[in-house]
Amino acid sequence: MNKVKIILINIIGIIIIFIDQITKRFILKNPDIFRGFSIGNFLHITLSKNYNLAFGINISHSILYLLIGLIILFLFNLLKKNYFSNDLTKVLIITIILSGAISNLIDRIFLGYVVDFINISWFSIFNFADICIVLGIVFFIKIELFKKTG
Asked: Distance between CA atoms of 52 and 42, rounded to whole angstroms?
């Protein structure tokens, strides 16, 4: 993989972390700006301090940090494997997932919780990093399934 591609992938990762952290800090500093904001009955902006795992799963903090560390370590190893195989698509997808995970980890380390604020009435409250993680996982699984069936 050439240096330009590596630089672009790193820039994408940094941009994801930047967007996520900026939106979270803005919501934290201005929680009343969006109070009552909604798009229909579907989307609301609601500040939520998430001390739990994804989707509100409650586990002890020591187990939580261990799981997060193991997941990030696994993703770094997956990134390294795909980097050396020159699979740019997978490297990009893993970078997107890792960037979301790292941004949420930044919250946990510095705040003790993850800032969530995008509230879909029938689902859950989440943030931009969560969107990156979930979409990245979906695309990664899709690529793997097509590789095995195609």
From this structure: 24
Render pLDDT for 17-70 as a digit per residue (tens, 0 to 9).
Answer: 999 999 999 999 998 888 778 888 889 999 999 987 666 666 776 777 788 778
Asked whether residue 7 is assigned to any structural domain, the reply reads no
In a domain, 86, yes or no: yes
Instruction: Tell me whether residue 116 is one of the annotated catalytic residues.
Output: yes
Number of domains in the chain: 1
* pTM summary value: 0.83
What gap in Å lies between CA 64 and CA 50, rounded to an integer?
Answer: 12
Q: Is residue 14 one of the residues assigned to a domain?
A: no
What is the domain range of residue 31?
Answer: 23-149
Active-site position among 20, 32, 107, 130:
130
Determine what percent of the chain is predicted with pLDDT higher than 90: 50
